């Protein structure tokens, strides 16, 4: 996506550039992040940065984590809150706010969270919003907190994909931007899985991406792990 701000609420109302739900809504946490949970690498107080409809937050809450999700879209936040209520999850709460400004965070956020997870938010921000975002989540992090970012790698989308194209990153760019506020532990190749709708068998050989076992796109990404010193 270019630095132009997308109308995210229209996307979550299914009135935006996608037909139906946005492709990053896959009905569960991204597999790369689910693996971190399974490995026990998530602390008990979690900030889900750019939570969307909160598939990640809800999965964490069901496992006993306390989760706060923040998103710019009031529609996404309302849907997430309703899902938590329907499932009886009192340990998940959601707030509509601009995550690039700490002043909009819920009270008591400063120094609270020992894990912050960015599940495909980073590449959705305008480039000029990155610094404010990283500064804000750093303020929200407790000493020693861990920060995980799942972000599209450069080349994940063809150059002609203009409308809605994320701000993909290369490894050096990602390290330089995040390293200003966080101590980076690792950046490794990863995948972002996306729901693409029905794909005819005859189209499989010409797809510009691989598919997982559920016929979801597997698109090149990075998984960054960092911590607060």
Automatic annotation (TrEMBL):
The keyword Transferase applies. GO terms for molecular function: methyltransferase activity. GO terms for biological process: methylation. Residues 45-162 form the Methyltransferase domain. InterPro entries: Methyltranfer_dom (IPR025714), SAM-dependent_MTases_sf (IPR029063), TPMT (IPR008854). It is an enzyme of class 2 (transferase). It holds the Pfam family Methyltransf_31. Keywords: Methyltransferase, S-adenosyl-L-methionine, Transferase. The keyword S-adenosyl-L-methionine applies. Its EC number is 2.1.-.-. This is Class I SAM-dependent methyltransferase.
